[in-house]
Amino acid sequence: MNRGLMRETMSLMLAAAILFSLGGCATQMVAKKRIEEKFPSTSRVAVIPFENLSGTEKAAEKITDYFQTIMKGIKKFETVEYGETYDLLRQFRVRSSTQITEAQIDTLASRLDLDFILTGAVLEFEEYDNSYLGRVPQVSLNCRMIDCRSRKTVWVATNNGRGDRSEVAFGIGAIKSSEALARQMVEEAVQDLTALFD
After folding, report:
1. Extents of the domains making up the chain
2. β-pair partners for 139
3. Is the dihedral of CA 19, 20, 24, 26 positive or negative?
4. Taking the CB of the first residue and of the last residue of the chain, which one, N or C, has fewer CB atoms within 10 A?
5. CA distances from 63 to 7, 17, 106, 185 (A)
């Protein structure tokens, strides 16, 4: 291989490496814990249905399901089965997860032997047209974890994602569906939440 071709190949490889390293993250999450101590791994957490403020049908159900599914695989705490939680919410007519009352927290905690409740809202869950990439998903959500003993919020997070933020070049790295983007956002939130437990 001659020197000119070798230099050209190296330059292309370097340019590709720079492009891939410049590729951004599709989401922008901000999370804040409001306590210093870690929680025991024996803690029980219930995911209650997220509020749908997005206007997109079933958006909150998808986000709730993603949290439930991903959290079920975490060994640092126990996630209560969604069916148990849902039945109790219906029985006690808990209609708004974002405006849950202290009495409702106490009822859920005692009936399900809970330490924490995770809830939140889906603010955006849509796809818009982009002349170059086609459909670009955009998802926004917020969530919080409530300590059932103190009835206080001990962790909050907000996450805004757009499918084209992770694009490196020519559509490479772009996320094409709202579902894939939302799942990635939930995985990030659960990863941050998991750090609160021993």
Report:
1. 24-194
2. 125, 161
3. positive
4. N
5. 49, 34, 25, 9
Tokens matching residue 146: 């409530």
Q: What are the residues whose beta carbons fall under 8 Å from the beta carbon of 162, sequence distance 6 or more?
A: 26, 136, 137, 138, 139, 181
Element (H, E) at 134: strand 134-147
d(CA 26, CA 160): 9
Assign domain 24-194 one CATH number from 3.40.1280.10, 3.30.750.24, 1.10.443.10, 3.40.50.10610: 3.40.50.10610
Kindly give the confidence (pLDDT) of every residue in the chain, 198 residues in length, as a single tens digit, with 9 standing for 90 and above. Answer: 556 555 554 444 444 444 344 344 556 778 887 777 899 999 999 999 999 999 999 999 999 999 999 999 999 999 999 999 999 999 988 887 778 999 999 999 999 999 999 999 999 999 877 655 567 888 999 999 999 999 999 999 999 988 766 554 545 556 778 899 999 999 999 999 999 998
